[in-house]
Specification:
Residues 4-60 form the 4Fe-4S Mo/W bis-MGD-type domain. Its cofactor is Mo-bis(molybdopterin guanine dinucleotide); FAD; [4Fe-4S] cluster. This is NAD(P)H-nitrite reductase. The protein is an alpha/beta fold. The chain has 4 domains: 5-57, Phosphorylase Kinase, domain 1 (2-Layer Sandwich); 67-127 and 348-433 and 443-535, Rossmann fold; 142-334, 3-Layer(aba) Sandwich (Dimethylsulfoxide Reductase, domain 2), CATH 3.40.228; 583-700, Barwin-like endoglucanases. Helices cover 31% and strands 17% of the residues. It has 23 helices and 26 strands. A 7-stranded mixed beta sheet has the order 5-4-16-15-14-6-7, with helices on both faces. Strands 21-25-22-24-23-26 form a 6-stranded mixed barrel. The chain is globular and about 70 Å long. The mean pLDDT is 97. Bound molecules: iron/sulfur cluster (SF4). Iron/sulfur cluster is lined by residues 11, 13-14, 16-18, 41, 45-46, 48-49, 181-183.
Length: 701
Amino acid sequence: MQKKDSYDTICSYCGVGCGITVNKDSRGTLSVIGNDSYPVNKGMLCSKGKNLNYVAQDTSDRILHPEMRWSRNHPLQRVNWDTALTRAASVFQSIIDKHGPDSVGFYVSGQCLTEEYYLANKLTKGFIGTNNIDTNSRLCMSSAVVGYKKTVGEDAVPIAYADIELADCFLIAGANPAWCHPILFRRLEKHKEENPKVKVIVVDPRKTQSCALADIHLQILPGTDVILFNAIARWLIERKKLDKAFIKKHTVNFEECKQSAFQLTIGQAADRCGIPPEQIRKAAKYIADAKGFISMWTMGLNQSVIGVDKNVSLLNISLLTGHIGKPGSGPFSLTGQPNAMGGREVGGMANLLAAHKDLNNPEHRKEVSDFWGGKEIQPKPGLTATEMFNALENGKLKAVWIICTNPVVSMPNAHKIEKALQNASFVIVQDISHNSETSKYADLLLPAAGWLEKEGTMTNSERRISYLPKVIDSPGEAKPDAEILWEFAQKMGYSGFNYSNASDVYDEYCLMTKGTNIDISGLSYDRLKKEGSFQWPVPHKEHKGTPRLFQDQRFHTSDSKAHFNAPQNIYNQSEETDLDFPLILNTGRVRDQWHTRTKTGKVKRLSTHIPTPYLEMNKVDAYLRGLRDGDIAIIKSRRGTVQVKVQINFDIREKVVFLPMHWGKILNNDFSRANNITNDLVDPVSKEPDFKYCAVQVSKY
Ligand code: SF4
């Protein structure tokens, strides 16, 4: 009989954070199944999770050794780790000496483990002396972060998945969880099957797969979400369907919310949103009648030039109805990436500090720099994702270190990203795969360990921290990202980086959280291994974790009240359509692909669902352009061109088209990359790009 080793870990894809059991037979062959005892997925996995063993075992694309070139005219050549990190340190140091610490930056990823994120942040803010560290989470979550901070005082998701089974009304806005958070959607589906009176409201310009569960689909015009949420708020206020006691005792700024909501009548709002007013009233009544109301949202709200306004206007609805801090109730931002939340906990963004401390607060900055024993932390926020690439393009930023992300495919206005990387003096790419198109721009390419090849922790959408064990060795000379970072810090001569394993890094971070709202000083690797996952805070060693926040109705604001916020803009501020560019482009995910396909693209069976990029278009718009299903369409914006097959239906609104975001260049053909045409306009506060709205023209090839 073959001996089997069994390891419990977490899926490396979306923020649902499903538990996976990995079995390794005596030949070292891996298989994966859903972990029955893990509370998130109870044994279920979606197609991506089920195929992770193939991704982990196929090393054909892996970067196996450090590679370096002395100039852009030279090819990359294999070097050893010592040479690679010595070069990294000497180039970074000479650039810092000549141009100052703000001339270098790190661009990291919501797929990094918490320990890696923590170290990159400590290194950048605490020792190099710049706040130039940002992450691809800027592209998906930053508007939600600002929304939560403005409303409840901190980036704190109040709710748990277990609340799904306790709620009787859901509003899903700008999200397609049926495809993008499949196991969470499966829980919702089951709950509605068992409780047919549960109401589901879906807000989306497309009739997506999630609409199969909808009692009402509000197929609004893109960019009109604030108007819709304000109209719902107005109906609730006019009908006095409010939790008055909660508003009076536990909130401030109700009048501001009311004034904003009363700017338009429900009829005017319905006209602006392009839907019948009775649909708005019906949705509002579902919410008013609910005993437990949960709102769920992702990129459709966040990736917008008014992303923060969309968030706060939706959060206002939870406050009006008092649906927060109670069983089956709360505003639930669904994380896109597996550890976007863990990254934010350790301050892995240009405007954040570790342990949810505030970069604007001089005392907090001092606490963090004293804790680390490095340089004084600078008050000025660092460059955010789009700002970082703008600064590379204009020469203000000289060197960038890119970890576990593929900006050449994932950032908006991708040609600009390519130019920025060409213009940079020095680019380090630390990744697992040669499939990342960004690796072609590297002056120094560092091979990182992948999923199952290192240990660490991640936090999912419901604040659940889980431990991921090392199961297999990395191929070639690939190393865990944390190890690469601490060895680089040692080469730079920084003290405080003498770690011997990831657990040392984790323990240091836990200590830093003591006494904060995110306190996990009671949580060790030992507990995580023995007792399983925990939802933060976990402030002492006997504490069992905190499934739901704000049950005492005291919020993390300075006055302990929840704050209503009037949106600054109720009208969209995206680039305008005109006669030349008359259609609105929306981009997003498909079911079986993940991000830029560096992992899912390796699994043939995941490409059988949707093998190639496509443009979804309404039949009327297609007819007007002489396009038939399967024809090649040319899609142009003011920034570039895409050419893909067209898929025609009545599910998408007229004058709106949709492109999946996953594909980069296919066989060097530049025309398959959606981000050739997207816009790098950002929300002025969250700095999240406006991926969901740009003006395009479409014609037949
Ligand atoms: Fe992985 Fe998300 Fe699928 Fe769960 S739902 S298996 S976390 S991709």
